[in-house]
Task: inverse folding
């Protein structure tokens, strides 16, 4: 058989990634890892961009005058969007914006990566997975992309003055994180042996095989 | 008086007392912080004429000094990250009574003003998220502006236009723009410079008015009738979160020596964020260290060739600067009164011509006014 062309290899990798992703949701432990990691990462992302933080206290919901027209309006920097609602829940204040949608998409990618990593560690043979995911590392740039008024305040913590180069670099952190997360997912997915997956039990087994 | 450094500012325009009129004009009792009682002043920020040319912001008779050419200042501008209006000004402010301002703690910084008997309070924790409030104060359209990176709060008359945040910084300082002519106005300089949206503006200075940087506890005690900017700003912002740090207690950017962006000057005579009370006229600039004012209460100096004196006001933890060309004898008494030629006055109301002054971090003042006189 001749070597598949690059496009063909890519299609195969994508197909195997889909299979691996589906595997995560077929197992209870895969779903648990996915759900937990997604939720934790979303909270961390919203915290990093300042849309989930301590507030003035009290309880209430405030919605801006034109929430639909404002939803996609850029705000403080690249990939930060104008909040359209403020939700005060005691000591915590949540700002609803398109950043929550972006954060959820990133969080799902991180969750999928780590759930596959978990399966690779837990039951590598039954799942047909040969390598661990590097998704956690790939997720870090997105957290760093959080910006506040007048630039990347995160640099203050590092003790580095912002420059044009750094500001430009910050613009690419979030898309870079997304690309890295998808890339690591495909890298893991292409290791999946579909035949092994077909042999694996439908329900997750807690014991390492 | 002890002069730490005394350097002559190269005045961009001619000096002389007559030239000061446009930038140091005193509002008299109506502009005093001890002004008489008055009405609310309203919260509608709609435009209006104020002796301005159409909707253009009204400008002072004389131009304030620039240590660089306007075009060089434009070259020094850098992106702060947010796009134009990415930090949204408050254009329809509403106000509440002090009893409804439960979101303020006694030690929180606020910016207070009294104009024609109308007192208003602008909490730092709200302005840090917006930087500009386009308001109407005692019938006059004004812009209250705050730059968190330089610790400067300044008020400007705005005529029929409004001001917005350009997204650019010079010397870490807010660059405002007016929405009528799209001219850039660096906040501390209060003077127009070219920008990408108006490359050939008239170079002129805005008409300024004084806001007092103090604490909520002090201001409320001083002006119990004040109205307080409401958190109901029309924007979904978290006013419990200052992205840079905290003033109560002091921490983060406000409490360390780091800058977000390079400054125009690396003068290390004092700590970068040590607070000075700065005053400048077309003839030059002077800075009085605020902690020295707390200790000595009265400090004399010069702006250009003209003697000036700064008097500390213990009630609000602020100071006022006055021209003192006749070199009257000015002495402190107990922090709440000052003797001028033997006669007692409140520090806010000396019988001298007041010079506009405001708090600023040292690096910001030294960057814009490298030839400033400094007094401690």
Result:
């Amino acid at each position: 058989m001749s070597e598949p062309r690059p496009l063909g290899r890519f299609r195969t990798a994508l197909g195997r990634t889909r299979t691996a992703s589906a595997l995560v949701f077929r197992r209870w432990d895969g779903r648990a890892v996915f759900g937990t990691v997604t939720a934790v990462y979303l909270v961390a992302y919203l915290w990093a961009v300042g849309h989930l933080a301590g507030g003035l206290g009290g309880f209430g919901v405030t919605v801006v005058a034109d929430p639909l027209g404002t939803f996609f309006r850029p705000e403080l920097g690249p990939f930060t969007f104008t909040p359209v609602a403020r939700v005060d829940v005691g000591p915590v204040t949540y700002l609803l914006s398109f950043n929550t949608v972006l954060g959820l998409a990133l969080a799902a990618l991180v969750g999928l990566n780590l759930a596959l990593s978990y399966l690779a560690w837990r039951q590598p043979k039954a799942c047909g997975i040969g390598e661990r995911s590097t998704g956690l590392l790939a997720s870090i740039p997105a957290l760093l992309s959080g910006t506040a008024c007048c630039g990347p305040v995160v640099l203050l913590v590092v003790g580095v003055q912002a420059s044009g180069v750094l500001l430009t670099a910050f613009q690419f952190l979030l898309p870079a994180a997304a690309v890295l997360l998808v890339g690591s997912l495909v890298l893991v997915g292409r290791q999946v042996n579909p035949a092994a997956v077909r042999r694996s039990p439908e329900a997750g087994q807690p014991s390492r095989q | 008086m002890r002069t730490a450094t005394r350097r002559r500012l190269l005045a961009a325009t001619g000096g002389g007392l007559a030239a000061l009129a446009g930038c140091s004009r005193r509002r008299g009792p109506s502009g005093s912080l001890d002004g008489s009682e008055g009405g609310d002043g309203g919260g509608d920020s709609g435009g209006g004429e104020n002796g301005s040319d159409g909707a253009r912001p009204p400008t002072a008779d004389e131009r304030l000094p620039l240590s660089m050419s306007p075009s060089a200042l434009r070259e020094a501008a850098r992106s702060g990250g947010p796009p134009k209006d990415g930090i949204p000004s408050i254009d329809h402010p509403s106000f509440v009574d002090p009893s409804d301002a439960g979101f303020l703690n006694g030690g929180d910084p606020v910016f207070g003003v009294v104009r024609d008997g109308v007192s208003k309070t602008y909490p730092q924790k709200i302005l840090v998220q917006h930087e500009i409030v386009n308001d109407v104060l005692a019938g006059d359209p004004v812009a209250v502006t705050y730059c968190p990176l330089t610790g400067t709060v300044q008020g400007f008359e705005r005529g029929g236009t409004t001001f917005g945040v350009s997204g650019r910084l010079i010397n870490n300082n807010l660059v405002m723009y007016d929405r009528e002519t799209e001219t850039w106005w660096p906040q501390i300089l209060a003077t127009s410079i070219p920008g990408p949206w108006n490359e050939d503006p008239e170079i002129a200075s805005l008409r300024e008015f004084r806001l007092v940087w103090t604490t909520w506890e002090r201001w409320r005690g001083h002006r119990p009738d004040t109205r307080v900017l409401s958190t109901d700003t029309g924007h979904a912002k978290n006013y419990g979160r200052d992205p840079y740090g905290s003033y109560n207690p002091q921490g983060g950017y406000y409490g360390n020596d780091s800058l977000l962006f390079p400054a125009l000057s690396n003068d290390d005579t004092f700590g970068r964020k040590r607070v000075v009370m700065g005053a400048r006229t077309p003839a030059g600039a002077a800075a009085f260290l605020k902690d020295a004012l707390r200790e000595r209460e009265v400090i004399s100096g010069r702006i250009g060739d003209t003697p000036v004196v700064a008097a500390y006001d213990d009630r609000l933890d602020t100071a006022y600067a006055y021209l003192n060309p006749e070199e009257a004898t000015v002495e402190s008494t107990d922090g709440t009164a000052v003797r001028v030629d033997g006669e007692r006055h409140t520090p806010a109301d000396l019988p001298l011509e007041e010079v506009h002054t405001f708090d600023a971090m040292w690096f910001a003042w030294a960057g814009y006014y490298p030839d400033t006189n400094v007094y401690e």
Q: What stands out?
A: The interface with chain A takes residues 78-83, 86-88, 103, 128-129, 131, 148-149, 169, 231-232, 234-241, 243-244, 252-253, 256, 258-262 of chain B (CB under 8 Å). Chain B has six helices and 27 strands. The CA atoms of residues 55 and 289 of chain B lie 38 Å apart.
